[in-house]
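CHAIN AND CONFORMATION:
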Amino acid sequence: MLDELLVNNYALIEQASIEFSPSYTVLTGETGAGKTALVGAIKLLIGERADVGSITDGTDELRVSARLLDQAGEETIVSRRLNRSGRSRANINNEMATVGTLSELIGSRFDLLGQHEHQSLLSTSRQLSYLDQFGGHKLSTALSTYQDAWKKRMAAADELAAIEALVFEGSRSLEEARSTIEAIEAVDPQAGEYEQLLADLPILRRGEDLAISSHTAWDLLRAEGQSLDLVSQALRILTAVKGVDRRLDDLTDRLESSQIDLEDIASELVAYRDNVSFDASALEETLDRLGRLEALMRRLNTGMDDVFDLYDQAKKQIDLVDNLPERLKTASLALDQSEQELQSAAAQLSQLRLACADDLAKRLTKRLTELAFTDASIEARCDDLDRSAWTINSTQRFELLFRPQARSSPRPLARIASGGELSRVMLALKSELIANEGLTLVFDEVDAGIGGQAASAVALYLRRLADVHQIIVVTHLAQIAALADRQYVVQKTSEGSQQSTSIFEVSGEDRVVEIARMLSGSSDDVALAHARELLGSRIET
C-alpha cells in the first residue's frame, strides 16, 4: 500500500506531499493542472524510464520518495533521484538499488492503467497477451513449451538448409579441396622445415670460409706459444704467490676460470671445423627444396604456416562432403521430429487458449453488467492460422468481439466500441487480470468518454474494487470522486511567466465546493446540493 508520496521538482510540481487512504483516494483538478505528473512520479518509483525533461525548469534535480506498507504493516521507504546529466539514483530502505530492483520489488506491488491504455484493446496481438496473462501459470507454461519447440524447429530448419547448400556447392568445393591436398602432398612440407632451410642456406654458401676461420681461431688458442700457453704461464706465476693478498687471489681465480672457458671454446672450434659443410651438392639440394616450398606458397597465395592450416581445412572439407548424404538424412529426421514436437505443443497451447478465451469472455460480460452495460456482451474468437503464418507466439488469431445489444452482431472492438465503452471494457479486463490481493491500483483518467449512468456505475465499481485493493484514481467525474475516502485537488497557479502546481486535500465544505465544480463548473445552490447528495456521509462535520 502506498502510504505517503513526496515529490520535488517534477514537471510543474516544485513540492508536494500526499497521504493516501488505504482504500480509495482521488486526484481531481482542471485539465492540464498536473494530475498526470503525480502518476509519472509513481512510475519512477516502480522502475519505469526516467526523462530529464520531467525536471522542473530552473532546477538541477527531481526527487520522488514514498513510504509503502505491506499487509503486515511493515514499512518500506523507496526513493529516486534524477539530475540533468541523466544520472538516476534509487534507494530502498536507505540502500542503493538498481532500476531493475525497483521494478521487481516495488513495481510488483502496483498496477497502473493510463488514460490511453484502453487503446491497446484495439490491437489483436495485445488482446492475445491479455488472454495469456489471464490464463495464469498453466497457460504461461504451455506458451513457453511452444516457444521452445518453435526455436528448436527453426534451428533444425536452418541446419538442414545449411547442409543442402553444401550439397549444392559440394562438387566445386570438393574439387578445390582435392587440388589443394594434391599440391601440398606433392611437396610434402614438414613443420619447421622451411625455416631451417633458410637458416642453413648462408652456412652452405660460405661453408669453406667458416671452416678456415674456425681452424685459424683454434690454432691461435692451442698452438705452442699462443693464447692458452701464455695464459697458463701467467696462471703459474700468480699461483706461486696465492694466499698472500686476497685481492690478487680473486684475480688468480678469475684467470683460472677464463682458462677453462678458453679451453672449452678451443674444443668447440675444432668440432665446428670438422662438422661444417661446404659440399656443393648439399647447397644445390637446399636451393632446390627451398624453390619447391616457395613455389607451393605462391600457388596457394599464403605463408608456410598457413599451408598446414589449408591442408587440414581441405581434409575436413572432403570429410564433410563425403559425409553429406548421412548428415542430410540426419538433419531431415531432426526437422521432422522438431515439427512433430511443435505441432504437439501448438495443439496443447491452442486448446488451453480456447478454454481460457471462453472463460475470459464470460467473466468480462458479467463485469460489464456491473459497469452499466445492461445488454452488452463480449465474445472471444480464435481462428487457426495457416501453418505458414504461425509465429513464435501463436498459431491462432485471437480477438475480442463486442456485442452492444443482445440482437446485434458481435464485431471487433476497433469497429464498434466508443472511447467510453473501451474504457469500461479495459477496466473490466484489468479487474480480471489482477490476481494478487493488496495491490495498489492507479487509474489515470480511465473515465474518458463516460458520463451519466455509466459514470455512476464505474464509480460504484471502483468503490467495490477498493474493498480488495488500494485505489488511486485521477478523474474528472464527480461521481467517481465523491465515493473516495480522500480527495486531493491539483491546481495550477501562475506568477508572471512562471507556472507551478499545488496539491492540497479537500474535506468538509471545501470538498462540497470541489465536487460542485466538477458537476457544473460552478458553486451555485443547485450544484452544491447535488454535491452534498453525492458525498452523503463522507462530508466531514
In short: The mean pLDDT is 87. The first helix runs from residue 35 to 45. The first strand starts at residue 2 and ends at 10. The two ends are 28 Å apart (CA to CA).
